[in-house]
Structure formats: C-alpha cells, structure tokens
Write a structure and sequence with these properties.
Immunoglobulin-like, globular, four-stranded antiparallel beta sheet, single chain, Lipoxygenase-1, mainly beta, 6% helix
C-alpha cells in the first residue's frame, strides 16, 4: 500500500513539473480559432539584426486582451528600462508586437501581472531574431529569463572639423562617420540646443548664420544609435559677427506642438515663402507654398495622414531657412 501511495505522489509531482514546463496549449501562433492571426510570425525581422532590439510578440487567441497592467519588465545590470505593456484589455484585441532597444549587459525579463490566465501568450526574440523565450502554460514566478546582451560598440565621430565663412554667413561642419552599421544618423546642436538631424549617409552639414545675433556660438555633432550611448559630442566654437542682425527665428511660431491634425505657421516680421515637413530620414512628407494662407494670415498644413513620431519643419523665409522640431501624435 505504501509503495502505491509513493508511486501516486511521485506521478503527481512529475505531472506538475511537466505542466509547468510545457508550452501553453492555448497559444496557436499560426492561426487562432477565429482566423485573426494567420500571418508568418517567424518572418518578421527587425530593421537591423545587430541593433540590440528585442522583439516581443503578444497574443490573446480569444480576443479579450490581457488583464490591466500585465506586461514584461526589462532590467539591465540592475537598471529598469521600463515595462512592455501587454495587449490592452477589451473585446477584439488579439495581437500586439513591440521592439525595445537595450544596451549591453545582463538583461533580466520579469513578468508583471497575474500568473494564472492561460490566454496570455507571448514570445521574446533576441537581436538576431532568435526565439529565446515562450511562456509556459502557467507562469510560476517573476523572473522569466536572464540574457547576456552584447551590442555593437558605441563609436564616436572622427576627423571632425568646423569653419565659419563670414562672407557667405555660413558655418560648415564635416566628419568621418563611425564604422558601425547601426548608426541611424547624426544630431546637430547649436549652443546646446538641437537644431537638425541628418541621415547616416551624410558626413557634412552647413548652417546659415545671417539670422543670428552677434556672439559666441558652439556647434556640435553626435552620432545617433538605436540604444543609449554615453558619447561626448564633437564641437566647433566660433564668434559670429552679425552687427545689427537680430535673431528672427524666435518670431516664427509653430503650433500646436505636439500636433495631430493641423500644423500652423505664423510670423509677424519674416516673410514665409514655403513650409516643408521632413521625416527623421530626410524625406519630404508635406509641402505648402506661401500663397495658401487662412484669413488670419497663417499657413495651415493638414498633417492628419502622417504617422506619429518626430518630424522637422523647414520654414523658408527671405532671411533663410529655419528648421524647427515637430512631434505628431
């Protein structure tokens, strides 16, 4: 009798271990019962495999979403990088995908939320798009996975040079780009304030100075990576002599910012001739000529069909081109 009891207890424990380690039988990644998820999940790749981007693919096969607040927290070397929040709770919410860029170090993925609901299906892919975690039938702890992340090294600019041509009233900057495939572009700053972004294929930049007041100016350039890099900017200091010239860029008003459906440009002193909206890759998305104004003299641009994100608005005036940053949300 004792042997039978021991056998039954052992079989029960073995069964529990199997259930805890088994993959969730409710997660059919090819197609859910309603046919809403028929897609080639495995063929979705990150834009750059070496960019330290972890991909989170989440699903609820029944279309009810996840319990509010459920998600996956990411901690790198003891520092939290936020939580990937799961599918919002509500009818018809089947699928969600997020990509998060993390720095080098020991990455720990923690589950935050309820442990028991069987319809919380998710996968985690590493920067090489390899599946490194798939949730079991029942989550039984906070720590899901520890992964050693190795990102490409953050490399600075080299051979950075700057010059100020007073006759042409322009500052010229040039550099050699880092030998890294993951650089997404270069940010340009003037006196500590961001003024422009250029594509990763460009290694020079020119800035008109005829609208600036006389004084000392520092122009800096920094490479932009998809993850956090602690790099010093390369800078060029110069004295710009524009006696009698005032900085009219402050007269230009760009609003609302952030914007959603309409963008308005107005100025009381400058004659605006053209407005263009440029994305972060340097591609023109919108353009509007000066003759198209409303009754208040404002240039109004419809941006309702733009994707959410950061854009640069190039405003052409008789004093030169002024670039302002705009967020569409």
């Amino acid at each position: 009798m004792r042997k039978i009891v021991i056998f039954l207890i052992s079989a029960t424990l073995f069964s529990i271990c199997i259930n805890l380690s088994a993959q969730n039988p409710n997660c059919d990644w090819e197609e859910n019962p309603d046919g809403m998820l028929r897609r080639s999940i495995e063929n979705i790749f990150l834009s750059n495999k070496n960019s330290c981007g972890f991909r989170f693919v989440m699903m609820n096969p029944y279309g009810f979403g996840w319990f509010t607040g459920s998600g996956i927290e990411m901690i790198v070397d003891g520092v939290s990088y936020g939580t990937v929040i799961g599918i919002p709770w509500g009818m018809g919410n089947y699928f969600k995908e997020d990509t998060v860029f993390l720095p080098s170090g020991e990455v720990q993925f923690f589950w935050r939320g309820s442990y028991s609901p069987p319809a919380m299906c998710f996968r985690i892919y590493n920067p090489s798009n390899e599946l490194i975690y798939e949730n079991p039938e029942l989550l039984n702890g906070d720590l899901l996975l520890t992964y050693q992340n190795e990102c490409p090294e953050c490399l600075p600019l080299t051979n950075f040079e700057g010059e100020y041509n007073q006759e042409a009233k322009v500052v010229n900057l040039s550099w050699i780009a880092p030998e890294s495939e993951v650089v997404t572009g270069f940010d340009v700053f003037r006196n500590g304030e961001w003024i422009d972004h250029v594509d990763s294929t460009i290694n020079s930049y020119s800035s008109q100075t005829d609208t600036l007041e006389t004084g000392d100016y520092t122009y800096c350039v920094a490479p932009v990576y998809p993850y956090i890099c602690d790099l010093e900017k390369k800078c060029f200091e110069t004295y710009i002599n524009n006696v009698g010239i005032k900085n009219f860029s402050f007269d230009l008003q760009l609003y609302p910012n952030p914007a959603r459906n309409e963008l308005r440009v107005t100025s009381y002193k400058l004659q605006v001739t053209n407005v263009e909206v440029i994305d972060i890759y340097g591609r023109k998305q919108k353009s509007r000529k000066a003759e198209k104004r409303n009754s208040e003299g404002e240039m109004v641009m419809d941006i309702s069909n733009l994707a959410n994100g950061i854009y640069f608005v190039e405003i052409t005036t008789e004093k030169g081109v002024i670039t302002k940053k705009m967020i569409r949300q």
